[in-house]
What does this fold into?
Amino acid sequence: MKKLYAIAITTAALALGSFQLQAAETIRFGTEATYPPFEFLDDNNEVTGFDIDLAKAICAEIKAECTFSTQPFDSLIPGLKYRRFDAVIAGMDITPARQKQVDFSMPYFENSASFVAAKNKSFKSANDLTGKAVGVQNGSTFQTYMIDKFEKQGVTVRPYETIQNAFLDMTNGRLDAVFSDTAVANDWLLEQGKGDYSRMGEVIRDADYFGVGYGIAVRQKNPLKSKIDDALTTLKNNGTWQKIHDKYFPEAR
Ligand code: ARG
It folds into this structure.
């Protein structure tokens, strides 16, 4: 009888032990994966990119498991608030407006904004866009900026669910320009623009709209923020960040 009892306790303890092993923290990331080189689907339909490699490296540091789900960009902050995921990594600008809703990690990537247009349109600056149509990603900081700064000047601002669809509409002649992240514009120019398109005018940095770089968003006051920040500091210091950067931005080497 005593022996059986002991066996039962041992089994329970073993079960508990393995449960604890499996119960390592899981961080569910939300993203919008049509944004190369930050997040996109590879040939096997797996989400990949600079942000994804960085998130995986953070999870390795924290000893957490990472999962990724992809959603429309404008639903990422609502999804985070409704706990559909624990963090958002999506080339997301740390802006004052968003900071009212979520907390951000320290900046992990320096950002700026750029227009792309056909070379033969020979627009010199955004002021030449009066009466023209410009595509932006729905819910992005570019949309807010264009509406605030250019709509009253007679520019039509067209929101797209993905920036790739905006680029496509530009190549089909339905848009005169696309306004997006400089790094994403550069990637598109290299991969698809094929010499007929280029960046137009100056790179724009306006912290009121585009914030202070990209950050990983978490729910307000979530202690996950400081774990992510500590991991980011380590990855910056030990060269991992740079390695991931060079993988996705080889021209910067
Ligand atoms: N940087 C812009 C913003 O924060 C656009 C980001 C879009 N990201 C994406 N994964 N589609 O609003």
Q: What stands out?
A: The two ends are 71 Å apart (CA to CA). The longest helix spans residues 2-22.
